[in-house]
Fold each of these.
Amino acid sequence: MILDLFAGPGGWSRALHVLGQRDVGLEWDQWACKTRAAAGQTTIRTDVAMYPTWPLVGRTRGLIASPPCQAWSMAGKRLGLLDQPLVHAAVEDLAAGRDTRERILTACRDARSLLAAEPMRYLYALHVVGEPDWVVMEEVPDVLPLWKQYAAVLRRWGFSVWCGILNSADFGVPQTRRRAILLASRVRTAHPPAPTHARLAEPDLLFGPGRARWVSMADALGWGATDRPVPTVCAGGGPGGGPEPFPSGSRKSLSDARERGTWTPRPDGVVLQSRREGAGWAARHGTRENRGADGPAPTFTAEAHRWSWSLRSNNQTNATVRSVEEPAGTLFFGHRANECTWVAEPSAPSTEIADAVDAPAPIRITAREAGVLQTFPATYPWAGNKSQMFSQIGNAVPPLLAGHLLAPHLGVTLDADDFTLAA
């Protein structure tokens, strides 16, 4: 079997399915297990820290591990960094066959920190019988020193090992999600996959193919192919005199407007820039509330009816804001402050006076859209309420990145077209 520790909602499993393989996932979260069941993935609902290793010995050819990142992530309190020496000690002991987890856990500031040591418990038990053939592990960048400790142990056991930081956008994921990766193999030289994408497109060269431009959110979500659409708001009404596609306060999804035919290609020459929050529409022009009932309204001419849409990563003042023409930043959820929202600004504001049109209200990203930006199919069967779905999506490994990491170990060629983003 291929054993998937902390399997989550199925990022690795989805990649294996596309590559013609299956895994057995160990996962505790009930909603992630329900999602996996709906997706047809084999799952044992269990606490990875409590599950015995003996049923796996003699049956495991590959091991995947993505320990929970909450203790280490920048989206949380990052107590894992304070607990890191304790986690290193636990890994050292487990690699020698000494289980000191119970004693070490009492000293941890965040109990989840020690979960990053759990893969070594499984690896030690399997190593006794010469298993597994290969190992792939993934975590947030701050866990890289721990992966280097794992690498040293695995090399002593006869593995070829590589570990480092990879950017998901370099592999066709519409998201600049950076992750610490460990790749190890008993049967081949371990090295990272060759990037397929770059910030700017690169031409083919004599010694190899070039790289495509990073996949934008607009590309991934199907909001236009060569002409990337943005919502259009006409002063005094929508196209043909109809209602405005996004009246003030609207919470409709962007896809609703596209289906109603109110989307048009962005005007030539408009360049949408990546930026930090702080110089937005409300800051420059005010809102209806702080302008007062009698205050002047923002105005547009007939040449400035288009809104440029961006994804704001959370509710904090220093939130990353990315244009739909770019990959998203790292998606993380699980707290009200971490809600991702679509925000609009006029792409070409005018100083001339025209009919008043307020900027569309921020629109929360849908689970479907967030899943697609993680390279799950749009029809992926997320289980639970919105909060539970978003939590699963934020914690998942992008299947397309997982496919690039797994394909060499499986001896298969990855076809990125099999990971259809918007279908």
Amino acid sequence: MQGRLITLTDYRRLMDVINTSTSTISPMISARLTYELNGARIFASEDIDEKVITMNSRALLRDRVNGSELEVTVTYPGQVDIRSNRISVFSPAGLALLGRKTGTIIAWNTQAGLRQFEVVEVLFQPEAVGDYSL
């Protein structure tokens, strides 16, 4: 499996959230995200590949079983909106997506069981349009 690619800005912000989080974030997910962040390849925001899912990126996913497609945005916990498919990086899906590149196959557990998705395309990435503040 390919390693994660993370911007230094995302790394710092996420570690800050982890280190200052209250009980609203699952300790298991926080520990897993910390592990993944510490093992990631870190890039300056302007140097990250535009095909990588960073924080606030919108990606098109394809279900590997039924072929259905889904657009999601990976967000911080306070920006979650399930109706708009804005998912937290502290959810199993958000954790699976962060730092992954177009063409990667990812999986996470859902209420229906383990689901596999392919990252078809990164539709929007803040860094690709020069927005390093998101």
Amino acid sequence: MIFEMTIQVRVSNIEEGRRWYETLLNKKPDFIPHDGFVEWELIRGCWLQVAEGDMTRGNGPIRLGVTNIEAERERLINSLNIDRFEIHSRSEVPVKWGTLSDPWGNCLGFFEYLDKTEEQERINSIKGIEM
């Protein structure tokens, strides 16, 4: 039975990486077990690990669900000075999405549900709220 997951990205400088991901995620790390390593619990049981080390090629993207992708894009353009990324959609896909890279080349992205009822149902399910 799988009950938790971790995703790891690598950065060349852990302090710069920590600051960048704190801004991206809008929060301080939840766990710092040792030098060169920080972790955030994104949702219950889902951890993002940022580790200092050699980069890996071809990873990602790691996509994070948000309720307003345009607002997140503007926040990151202003706070992290990232390039404006394109937001995509297709009629057969229930979300719109966009992809960006961190300064170390890790592929990241966001997605937003088009159906706001479905989005709220997912949020409530993750929070353990019965409808």
